[in-house]
């Protein structure tokens, strides 16, 4: 089992013919992802050769889905065109759209997220590394060779901390690791992933990585307290961040005590979550739970 993607996922790449799209399509294919097509209206009817694997290019998401049965799309599309690309995928009836693009205007994200919700389409991102179910499917830019399949679920706001935690716990492995992105508006939240991991019979424990700014982690803590029976270990990035400064991710701004790493840590601990002071300590907390 896994959440959101598995070996049956048929993936198309919007922006596959661009440099980033080609680079990461090659990496996704190498890690076993079932990529069935790319989308570029100007190059419809052509194909791209990836080390002997010919991937066809379609003129639209709808055409790609009709020909291939695709149910997942990943977007490597410049910020100015991301909204139109997401809306096209939603209109075509895709089940899951993974938006890697950084720098998407928040107003655009809010608009296409509301539209996707109204049509029952799950979005992950934007400004995220995507998600991986090791050994089955890897949709996005997550390195596939740093961990294997196992019994931990991971949800993280930070791409690099996703990779570090996967590597730290590679001896145990993961059902699915989801990088949800750090923008103020995102398509899939900590809570969405916590619910899915709680319902996944093969996920035995969950690592949740947050960061300063906003109240997503506090809301996740309240959800865990009410609904999650599996052990959860947490890490919050940004203990040393100065107050009132925007730190890296667009969502990471602290005002007063709201949104601080300490406030988030306390909220999580009050919900029974063990919170590490560093990623390595967080991994050790998880290892102790799994090895019991």
Describe this structure in words.
- This protein has 292 residues and is of the alpha/beta class.
- The chain folds into two domains: 11-124, 3-Layer(aba) Sandwich (Rossmann fold); 146-291, Succinyl-CoA synthetase domains (Rossmann fold), CATH 3.40.50.
- Helices cover 35% and strands 23% of the residues.
- The protein has helices at 19-30, 61-68, 79-92, 106-119, 159-168, 190-199, 216-227, 261-270, 279-291, and strands at 11-14, 35-39, 47-50, 53-58, 72-75, 96-99, 122-124, 130-133, 137-140, 149-156, 174-179, 205-211, 232-237, 274-276.
- Strand 8 (130-133) and strand 9 form a beta hairpin.
- The protein is globular and about 55 Å long.
- The relative contact order is 0.12.
Name the CATH architecture of the largest domain. Answer: 3-Layer(aba) Sandwich
Q: What is Rg?
A: 19 Å
Q: Count the E strands.
A: 14
Provide the number of structural domains: 2
Strand share of the residues?
15-25%
> What is the spatial order of strands in the main beta sheet?
3-4-2-1-5-6-7
Class of the largest domain, according to the CATH hierarchy? Answer: Alpha Beta
Low-confidence stretches: none
- Report the end-to-end length measured between terminal Cα atoms: 23 Å
Task: Report helical residue fraction.
Answer: 25-40%
| Tally of helical runs | 9
Helix and strand sequence: EHEEEHEHEHEEEEHEHEHEHEH
Rough outline = globular
Main sheet overview: 7 strands, mixed
Strand and helix map with partners:
Layout: E1 11-14, H1 19-30, E2 35-39, E3 47-50, E4 53-58, H2 61-68, E5 72-75, H3 79-92, E6 96-99, H4 106-119, E7 122-124, E8 130-133, E9 137-140, E10 149-156, H5 159-168, E11 174-179, H6 190-199, E12 205-211, H7 216-227, E13 232-237, H8 261-270, E14 274-276, H9 279-291
Parallel strand pairs: 1-2, 1-5, 2-4, 5-6, 6-7, 10-11, 10-12, 12-13, 13-14
Antiparallel strand pairs: 3-4, 8-9, 8-11
